[in-house]
């Protein structure tokens, strides 16, 4: 199974650049199908209210649940105090499977990492070239898996690439994705040093073409086993739901859901007291490993 582990969906509200204006999923899905991509992890573009943005992504995922898997976007600073609740809503209501945050907003805080730990979710943390912050959160939360996208820098910062490759080797819980990485030999080096198990294929669609991005992986000339890990096996492993604290699901707090009315969320929450209900529809994923 081929999984694109990095794609945006929905509309941003700031409208000063493509990445905070619109991430149209339609064209992406046509391109992804043509490229042989079976499933795609999607999350919001930049937004001034990620509870709203996540609700939008939830609706997009609900329209194509066989192909799309949602991650909850949070702003570690602005959303402080409600991150657990936002993640809870995303997991129970929309069956999201991970947390996304971006260093242009704020770097991962303990609140984010503890929510990830509680729900057993991977954290896709764009460190915008500041690879040194990985040295803080990765050893503090060894039981949380972190995906540091773009080999640490979407902006081709080779120093960040080098640091992240080193971190992939040193921290079992640090992974990266290939989305938008242009300096091909750093991908080669990452696989050589850290192993294919630490690298996930991602496209950064819809703005980057998934067919172009997947071709980079094919050009690596890996063994079929290694290629299969990068193209989907690693993502499947990280998405495997781990419910570490079932008692959390018995909480009576209102999860932060942006869409009008929280009744569905409350229903989902009460149903989620049965742990099986906590597992999203894509749970067959883990059996396909
Ligand atoms: Zn991205």
Short description:
With 289 residues, this protein is α/β, with parallel strands linked by helices.
Task: Summarize the topology.
Elements lengths: L2 E6 L1 E2 L10 E2 L1 H10 L4 E5 L6 H14 L4 E3 L1 E2 L9 H12 L4 E4 L7 H10 L3 E4 L7 H7 L5 E3 L9 H13 L3 E4 L6 H11 L4 E2 L9 H10 L4 H16 L23 H9 L3 H4 L5 H4 L2
Parallel strand pairs: 1-4, 4-5, 6-7, 7-8, 8-9, 9-10, 10-11
Antiparallel strand pairs: 2-3
Helix pairs in contact: 2-3, 3-4, 6-7
Bound molecules: zinc ion.
What would your notes on this structure say?
This protein has 289 residues and is of the alpha/beta class. The chain has one domain: Alpha-Beta Barrel (TIM Barrel), CATH 3.20.20.140. Helix content is 42%, strand content 13%. It is built from 12 helices and 11 strands. It has a 6-stranded parallel beta sheet. A 3-stranded parallel beta sheet has the order 1-4-5. Strand 10, helix 7 and strand 11 form a beta-alpha-beta unit. Helix 2 packs parallel to helix 3, helix 3 packs parallel to helix 4 and helix 6 runs parallel beside helix 7. It is globular and about 50 Å long. The N and C termini lie close together (9 Å). The relative contact order is 0.15. The C terminus is likely disordered. Zinc ion (ZN) binds next to strand 1.
């Amino acid at each position: 199974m081929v999984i694109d582990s990095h794609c945006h969906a929905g509309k941003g509200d700031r409208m000063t650049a493509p990445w905070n204006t619109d991430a149209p999923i339609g064209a992406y899905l046509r391109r992804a199908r043509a490229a042989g991509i079976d499933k795609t992890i999607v999350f919001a573009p930049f937004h001034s209210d990620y509870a709203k943005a996540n609700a939008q992504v939830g609706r997009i995922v609900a329209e194509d649940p066989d192909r799309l898997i949602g991650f909850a976007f949070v702003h570690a600073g602005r959303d402080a105090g409600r991150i657990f609740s936002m993640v809870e809503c995303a997991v129970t209501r929309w069956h999201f499977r991970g947390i996304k945050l971006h260093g242009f907003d704020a770097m991962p805080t303990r609140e984010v990492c503890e929510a990830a730990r509680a729900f057993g979710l991977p954290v896709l943390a764009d460190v915008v070239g500041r690879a040194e912050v990985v040295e803080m959160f990765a050893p503090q939360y060894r039981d949380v898996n972190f995906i540091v996208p773009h080999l640490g820098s979407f902006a081709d910062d080779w120093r960040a690439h080098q640091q992240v490759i080193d971190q992939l080797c040193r921290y079992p819980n640090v992974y990266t994705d290939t989305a938008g990485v242009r300096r091909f030999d750093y991908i080669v080096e990452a696989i050589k040093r850290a192993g294919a198990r630490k690298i996930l294929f991602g496209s950064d669609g819809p703005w980057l073409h998934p067919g172009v991005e997947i071709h980079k992986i094919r050009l690596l000339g890996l063994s079929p086993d290694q290629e299969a890990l990068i193209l989907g096996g690693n993502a499947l492993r990280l998405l495997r739901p781990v419910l570490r604290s079932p008692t959390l699901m018995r909480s009576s707090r209102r999860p932060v859901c942006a869409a009008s009315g929280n009744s569905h969320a409350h229903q989902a929450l009460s149903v989620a007291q049965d742990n099986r209900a906590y597992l999203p529809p894509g749970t067959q994923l883990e059996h396909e490993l």
